[in-house]
Amino acid sequence: MTKALLELRDVSKTYAGGGLLSRRHVAAVSGVSFSLQAEQPEVFAIIGESGSGKSSLARMVLGLSAPSQGTILFRGQDVTALRSRRDRLAFMRQVQPILQNPFEAFNPLTRVDRYLYATARNLAGASDQAAAEAAADGALQQVGLSLAELRGRFPHELSGGQLQRAAIARALIPRPALLVADEPVSMIDASLRMTIVNLFRDLRERLRVSIIYITHDLATAYTISDRIVIMRHGEIVESGNAREVLAHPQHPYSIQLKESVLSIEGAWNKETALVSSGNREGSRL
Amino acid sequence: MQPILSVSGLKAYYQMRYFGVAREIRAVDDITLHINRDEIYGIAGESSSGKSTLIKTIARAIRPPLNVVGGSIAFDFEAGPRDLYALSEEQLSAIRWRHLSYIMQGSMNVLNPVRRIRHSFVDFAFRHMGLPMPAFLQRVEDHLAHLSLQPGILESFPHELSGGMRQRVTIALATVCRPDFIIADEPTTALDVVVQKNVLGMIRRLQQEMGASVLFVTHDMAVHANLCDRLGIMYAGRLVEEAPTRALFQRPLHPYTAHLIRSLPRIGDDTPRHGLEGRPPSLAAPPPGCRFHPRCPLAMDICKREVPPMEELESGHRVACHAALQGIAP
Fold first, then answer.
1. Whether complex ipTM tops 0.85
2. Which CATH number is B173's domain given?
3. Is B243 a member of any domain?
4. pLDDT for residue A236
5. Is B217 a member of any domain?
6. Which among B266, B314, B318 is the top mutation candidate for probing chain A, defined by the most A β-carbons within 10 Å of its own β-carbon?
7. How many domains does chain B have?
8. Which of residues 54-73 of B touch A (CB under 8 A)?
9. Pick from A49, A268, A280: CB nearest B193
10. Does residue B30 form part of some domain?
11. E-assigned strand segments in chain B
12. Is residue A277 predicted with pLDDT exceeding 60?
């Protein structure tokens, strides 16, 4: 049997809260299992609202926090058992994060290209500046940018879309097998957003990288993902093929979620309209 | 009927001077619009399109370096016409909250985190209502009940409430005095979709019951489609298109608007969607002519030279685009 790229077995995470005397335990993630295959890269969307545990799950997959129960295996190896620096680095080469807000991901006082060189040196084995620049330029080409455009630029000199693409390029430098993207387009302006969304699909095809795409936005998830899971209160309530689940959700929560999505087409449909007001026909001027 | 708000040729710039070098950011540049009584007027735009500066300027909530450089803003409240910029601070505070109120994005920034909700209502609304305290609190409780909130939440602290409840409390705060004009700045952006739909429905219902006017700002086109009567689209500090909501979505005339609508992903629709190349321009050095021309698929020579005038091409449908003026559909 071939090893799965990533496998979560009954993963739970509880946080302790409250004071010393009123200790409370909050289950952020409970009993989550899924796996991504190594042979067939896919965009795997985790959908949930605030408090559903989707970001806690991302942190655990990235090895940033340990599950309270259950195991996370990456290529058959337990992620939490990586103790030595060598193992940790090897894992980081394979699994790279992309964060929500690119303006927070980059230090505002550091030139953007420096980040790319540092990643090339630390994770991709670039031994000198020329090799680091070559690695950075190669990764930037993958996302439709070039080192010439970015060299010496500070984060505020780039648009949100450019900066997020630079963040994706940085993650691609060590040639990872898995990208974990937590709400990567929610801070990006509408006119630039689809460029980033399309880029993820494109990277899956060209570089054969798997992507865990975490979002609350069902419409974007529909456009981008192959498989999805819908989470609520730390549990998976529904999972499967993205198109099927979003077109015909079965679980009551998934149905409610889908019905709550405001659409342009639904705005003038009497059944789905926000309020039954007859005066939005454009006659009142 | 007179519109409740008439904005004409409004220019508001951030004017700074560093080491003797003057720098000007033209966040609101020559905007003319009016808002009718009893309607929800939406403003859509991306970050740094000037939409927040516009509402700050309209509410006279500005301070240097933001200055009004030109144009006029005239309100016509139930109590009579007012020019906010001609009033003293005292007169202004009598109008704020009573006639002109706000619903903000971050409910935590409105509610004092260390005081009970009741104090926020007393601080904001008590002096405007002219009622003795018991009657005032009764009025507040009735209003909360109307928004499906228990009277008990008056004794809660903000952190004890969920995000959706907090946002409903801020809506209750903004509407308890039955103002004529409400400015809502991204009030549902931070909420989950299920809650968002409830809160939007509530804003719509209150607006209709009170006959108030709402200026509703968000970047989310789906929210605009579902809520607003009329919609204005801002790009780089200018209003580029304005129309009744349905007309705007069915037949956008400006290429930027058309892109915003077409690029929205939809469940069940597999046609590929694309982003726009380039980025919104810097407002400190905007491109000459039409500010959208470097990114516009329809750009012509004239677009690089001349600022397109805002023209009413169809009834109530205004657009500032050279191509649209020549009848070229985006």
1. no
2. 3.40.50.300
3. yes
4. 95
5. yes
6. B266
7. 1
8. none
9. A49
10. no
11. 5-18, 21-35, 40-44, 66-77, 80-82, 100-103, 181-185, 213-217, 230-235, 238-244, 311-314, 317-319
12. no
Give CA–CA dist B330/B325, Å, rounded: 11
Could you say which DSSP state residue A106 is in? S
Residue with the two structure tokens 């980033």: A196
Q: What is the C-alpha R_g of chain A? A: 21
Cα–Cα distance for residue pair A3/A145, rounded to 1 Å: 35
Asked if A219 lies within 8 A of B267 by C-beta distance, the reply is yes
Pairing of strands B66-77, B213-217: unpaired
Interface probe with A: pick from B193, B230, B259, most Cβ of A within 10 Å: B193
- Closest Cα in chain B, distance from residue A137 (Å): 20
Residue among B225, B272, B275 minimizing CB distance to A161 = B275
| Mean confidence (pLDDT) of chain B | 90
Contact B229, B214 (CB under 8 A): no
pLDDT (tens digit, 9 = 90+) per residue, B83-114? 999 999 999 988 998 999 998 877 667 888 89
Please write the tens of the pLDDT for every residue from B271-308. Answer: 888 888 777 888 888 899 999 999 999 999 999 999 99
Q: Per-residue pLDDT tens for B45-60? A: 887 788 889 999 999 9
Q: Which H, E and C letters describe A79-102, residue by residue?
A: HHHCCCHHHHHHHHHHEEEECCCH
Closest CA to B82 of B74, B91, B70: B74
CB contact under 8 A, B267 and A247: yes
Residues 293-312 of B with CB under 8 A from A: 295
Going by DSSP bridges, is the β-strand pair A227-232/A43-47 parallel, antiparallel, or unpaired? parallel
Question: CB A274 to CB B274 under 8 A?
Answer: no
Residue B153 CA, distance from chain mean position: 28
Separation of CA B79 from chain center: 23
The tally of CA atoms less than 13 A away on the side-chain side of residue A193 is 28
Q: How far is A84 from chain B (nearest CA, A)?
A: 40
What are A36-85's pLDDT values in tens digits? Answer: 998 899 999 999 888 888 889 999 999 988 999 999 999 999 998 888 88
Distance from CA of A224 to the nearest CA of B (A): 10
**B175 to A112, B34, B101, B165: CA distances (angstroms):** 46, 22, 8, 15
> Which residues 182-201 of B are in CB contact (within 8 Å) with A?
192-194, 196-197, 200-201
Considering only alpha carbons, which residue of chain A is nearest residue B205?
A275
Q: Which domain covers residue B189, as residue numbers?
A: 37-57+88-265+275-325
In a domain, residue B98? The reply is yes
Residues from chain A that touch B276, judged by Cβ atoms under 8 A, are 191-192, 195
With beta carbons under 8 A apart, name residues in chain A contacting B39. 284
